[in-house]
Fold this protein.
Amino acid sequence: MVLPLIYGLGAKDFLDPLGYVIMTCQRCGNDAPFAVFQAKRKVTFYAVPTISLKEQMVVECRSCEQRFSVPPGMRQDFMDHLLGEEEVATRIRGSISASRAVAKPKGPTFYQILQVDVAADPEVIEAAFRRLALKYHPDRSSDPEAPAKMRLLLEAKAVLSDPAQRMAYDRSLGIVRRPPAIRADEI
C-alpha cells in the first residue's frame, strides 16, 4: 500500500486579542497598557485541514512594540487581570490626572536652579553651570549659603547632563519630549 505524500504549503501565526494589562515594560521601562494575545502557529498541508502546532500567550508593549511570551505558570494570573479597552482608558486618564496633581516640585526645578529653559541643549546647561559655579563657589563667594547653592548646582548639572536621568526627571515633572519630525530633505 502506498501512502500519498503530504506537502506543507505554509505556516502562519495568528494572534487572537484577549484584552489588556497595565505593567512595566522590561525593555523601555514605561508603565503602560500591554495588549495580551493568544498566539497560534498554524500549518496548512495539502489535502489536510490546518493543524495548530504551537500555542502561547504573548503580551505586547504599546510604547516600544516589544513582545514577550507569558510563561505557562503565569497565564491564569494574566487572565485574571485582563482589562477591556474602556477600563484601560479610564485608568490611564485617572493616572495622568493624578500624576499631574502630584508632580508639582516642592522647590525650584533643576532648570530653575541652573536658570535655563527646559529645552536647553547640553552645551547651554554646561555654560550656565560654569557661570553659576564661578558665582557661588565657596572659595570665591562670601555668601554663607554658597556651599548649599553649589551642591544644588552640582546635582542639577549631574541630572540634566545625563540623557537617561534627564528623561526620567522630565517625566517626573510632566514634560514629554517628542522626537524631532523628519524633514523632507532628510528622506
Q: What stands out?
A: Confidence is low (pLDDT under 50) at residues 1-6, 99-103.
